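Prompt: May I have another protein with tokenized structure?
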Amino acid sequence: PCFMTGNLESTNLAIREIYDEIYLHYEDVWIDQGRAGDFQRYFSELIGHLKHERLLEIGCGEGNLLAVLPGTQKFGIDPSIHALRRARKRSNANCAIARCEQLPFPSDAFDVVVAVGVMEHFEKTDTAISEVRRVLAPSGHFVALIQADQTTAESAALKVRQYLYPNFQPLGLIRWFGKWLKKK
């Protein structure tokens, strides 16, 4: 199901387009960002120490982490339909197109909410955190990992993989460069 339609904020379509563009042209995006094998095992073990049945992963992407996370009832949200199609193949989780700022779940629905490398992408951090608090059970846990700064070389290597090789993406490169110039 898609919960980013209708009379919701006008930015929803733009956000979906951005992430659909990424996942349409690339697979294993998380792996490129260092979230493979050892990281997945570590994070899964960390979550395994928390008593829970119902788990939500915000920004689950292609479901690599969601597939290995423990839990009897797992849910994942992401703004990209292309990512969620892969996530559904990798895990038995229920997945939906949604944003953290507008979680489509009832209050107190989850024992654990996980957000790995997505908080820096929230448009309204206070709203997103309020939504996490709302859907988290009173004795639940919110486990978040926030991206650290990359070195210039790491950042350049990532941009090469995203926009130049192996799939040349001139429009994506131009959009990124335009955003980078605005920040300067």
